[in-house]
Design brief:
mainly alpha; 5 helices
C-alpha cells in the first residue's frame, strides 16, 4: 500500500512540482556551482525529473506496477 501512496503523491500537483523544482535545482547547481564536465553531467541528470514533472510521468512506475502517466494512475484509482 505504501508504494501506491508514493505513486499517488508523485502524480499529485505537489509531486509534479517537486520533480520540476528538483530538476531545475540540479541544472542550476550543475552549471552554476559545480561547473566543468561534472557540472554538465549533473545538469543533464536534472533534465530527467524536470521533463517527467512537466509531462506528469513517474520513472518508478514500472517498479511500482502502476501506470506511467499521472492522469492514468489517478483514473485507475477512481474506478
Amino acid at each position: 500500500m505504501g508504494s501506491m501512496r508514493f505513486a499517488l503523491f508523485m502524480a499529485s500537483p505537489l509531486g509534479r512540482g517537486g520533480r520540476i523544482v528538483l530538476g531545475l535545482m540540479l541544472i542550476a547547481i550543475g552549471v552554476g556551482v559545480i561547473g566543468g564536465v561534472a557540472g554538465w553531467l549533473v545538469s543533464v541528470a536534472g533534465l530527467l525529473p524536470l521533463t517527467l514533472g512537466i509531462l506528469n510521468g513517474c520513472i518508478f512506475a514500472p517498479v511500482l506496477h502502476v501506470p506511467f502517466k499521472g492522469a492514468d494512475l489517478r483514473h485507475s484509482v477512481r474506478r
